[in-house]
Amino acid sequence: MDQQEQIITEKKIRNKTLVALLFFFLFIAGCIVTWNWLHKQPKEQGALKPLRTVLNTNESIFSYFFSSRHLSKVYPKDAAVRRPRVNGKIGLSDDFDAATWKLHLVKAPGDTLLISLDELKALPKTEIIFDFKCIEGWSQVTHWGGVRFSDFAKRYGLDEQTRLAFAGLSTPDHEYYVGIDNASMMHPQTLLCYEMNGAPLPMNQGYPLRLIIPVKYGIKHLKRIGSIYFSDLRPPDYWFEQGYDYYSGL
Length: 250
Description:
Layout: H1 3-38, E1 43-44, E2 47-48, H2 49-65, E3 103-108, E4 111-115, H3 117-121, E5 126-133, E6 139-148, H4 149-155, H5 159-162, E7 166-170, E8 177-181, H6 182-185, E9 191-196, E10 199-200, E11 210-212, E12 227-231
Parallel strand pairs: 3-12
Antiparallel strand pairs: 1-2, 3-4, 5-6, 6-9, 7-8, 7-12, 9-10, 9-11
């Protein structure tokens, strides 16, 4: 290589380096400006407005592709962990009296059924072993038993109620509550669950009754159900109010 070619090559390398550095600093500046802009935005339903817009868009997309024929993968019993992790204890108050518990099923204002655990156990039992996924980033194969929500809805004449858009569930102390689209509630793998690993639910897993809904992240699997009601408007949702996704679908 002669001296002139060497000078041209070095010049090209220097120019490319300068251009690359320029784009790098412009990128960093853009990130800083965007970050500052984002944190000046107002909050909407617990989240910064641009983030809430993204979450609502995701919900629309997931809802569009949802199908009751899409089933979560199931596993053999020996794949289930013996001691599943507890994904939160909100709503599991220490003063809970299991002896007086009954499920409050609100069919309409002024029309509430009180349903005992024995009445739920009289319905056909269904078991599911699936990969329970938490928004914290962990998952476990877990084994649950109870009554399909769709069977429960049929037994208690909830055709009109399940045609509404949402179901709302809360704990007896009203400290934890979720809103769930009725399409997901009526999914064939959704259970009103009273057993874990073939035994009654432990207190810290929501005894006497919890929701198991494999098409959702763990934040929707409400433990210790106190009441269920139905609405065409979004029911209050604990983690939605903290800025999380309302739909929380998988």
